[in-house]
Q: What sequence folds into this?
């Protein structure tokens, strides 16, 4: 029954080319979809029974969908600071629920901040590891430590002053017993700014002492903010005007009893390098009335600030920026890799789920152990090449038309056969 075999083979060709055209249609439809990976048709012959020189047994063709998940798309810059892309191997881990949701994977990094502060994309919450302000992952980089990235975990910032640096000249031509005042600004642990008056007294040749007044609010000098410090610092100079020593060494200032409720402060006073002139010096002022010449008095610490921006930096660090100018790391985005990523099960919205064939996800930090590198403010373009797809579409159309012509020919041959029987 060669005619029926020919008909069966032609029908299988129609089915195979229809499937191929459906894949091409999907690829073209998603030519602008972020992170989309094309699917291509793989054709394989069918054999119904063995053939020989005198008897041919037609089979046909079948088609399989081949996923090209590992194909790298072009990275393009965006103006959205929470967009991310991976250059290389791996996926972003996401979950569809904040509570006990399934972990899925995607290359679509078009994440934005929702009303609750979470980084989301089409209802999928980006997962990450919580970090300290320097970007170090706490508790180990593992699946058990991943959580939906909540950018509202630290809404405000402020840090206490730990070091105040002095660069000033104390007048060598001042008389013993003369006093001079300068001021220094400090922040408590809650970010409140206070001003402290420093009194410099020349106690002997080449020797000075520094005492500190009760801190007052920087914005209102009539309002005290802490107990009066009891610390005093003795400073000695060499005969060439360079710093000889400080007592205590290093010089420190203890502040207790903040009225703001902040923690007690211990501030290191950086008065310069012993034997150097990079901090405090003692040279003649050359003035009729000697005076202290200040180059700079600078304290670290930060005032109170509100969260103003979230951005993803390179290597997957999620940074929070505040109105006081401070930027700190709050999360790190993992990269999930698979032994056989092309075997992942594709779902809507650019999501993939792990299968027995793909293996389980291995979570890596950006750019380590074969994982791709995460880039912020970039997106991965679709891997669809429309020129290539149009070429494949024409081939599929021609093959489909040819198979339909076979059916037409078989139909005529059946008609001839039936007429001969009559």
A:
């Amino acid at each position: 029954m060669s005619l029926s075999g020919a008909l069966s083979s032609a029908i299988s060709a129609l089915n195979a080319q229809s499937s191929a055209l459906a894949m091409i249609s999907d690829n073209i439809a998603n030519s602008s979809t972020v992170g989309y990976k094309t699917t291509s048709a793989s054709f394989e012959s069918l054999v119904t029974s063995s053939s020989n020189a005198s008897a041919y047994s037609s089979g046909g063709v079948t088609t399989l969908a081949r996923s090209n998940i590992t194909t790298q798309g072009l990275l393009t810059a965006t103006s959205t600071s929470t967009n991310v892309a991976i250059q290389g191997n791996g996926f972003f881990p996401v979950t569809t629920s904040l509570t006990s949701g399934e972990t899925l994977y995607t290359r679509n990094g078009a994440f934005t901040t929702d009303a609750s502060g979470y980084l989301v994309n089409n209802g999928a919450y980006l997962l990450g590891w919580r970090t300290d302000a320097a970007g170090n992952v706490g508790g180990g980089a593992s699946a058990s430590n991943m959580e939906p990235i909540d950018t509202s975990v630290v809404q405000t910032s402020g840090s206490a002053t730990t070091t105040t640096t002095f660069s000033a000249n104390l007048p060598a031509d001042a008389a013993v017993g003369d006093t001079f005042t300068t001021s220094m600004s400090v922040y408590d642990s809650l970010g409140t700014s206070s001003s402290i008056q420093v009194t410099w007294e020349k106690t002997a040749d080449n020797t000075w002492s520094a005492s500190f007044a009760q801190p007052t609010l920087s914005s209102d000098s009539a309002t005290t903010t802490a107990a009066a410090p009891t610390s005093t610092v003795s400073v000695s100079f060499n005969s060439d005007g360079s710093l000889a020593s400080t007592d205590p060494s290093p010089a420190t200032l203890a502040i207790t009893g903040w009225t703001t409720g902040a923690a007690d402060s211990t501030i290191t006073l950086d008065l310069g390098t012993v034997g150097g002139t990079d901090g405090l010096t003692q040279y003649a002022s050359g003035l009729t009335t000697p005076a202290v010449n200040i180059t700079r008095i600078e304290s670290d610490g930060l005032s109170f600030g509100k969260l103003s921006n979230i951005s993803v930096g390179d290597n997957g660090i999620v940074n929070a920026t505040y109105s006081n100018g401070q930027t700190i790391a709050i999360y790190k985005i993992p990269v999930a890799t698979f032994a056989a990523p092309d075997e992942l099960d594709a779902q809507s919205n650019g999501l993939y789920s792990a299968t027995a064939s793909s293996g389980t996800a291995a979570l890596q930090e950006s750019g380590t152990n074969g994982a791709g590198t995460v880039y912020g403010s970039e997106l991965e373009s679709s891997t669809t090449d429309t020129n290539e797809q149009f070429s494949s579409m024409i081939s599929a159309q021609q093959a489909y038309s040819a198979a339909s012509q076979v059916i037409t020919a078989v139909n005529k041959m059946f008609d001839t056969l039936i007429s001969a029987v009559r």
Notes: The two ends are 19 Å apart (CA to CA).
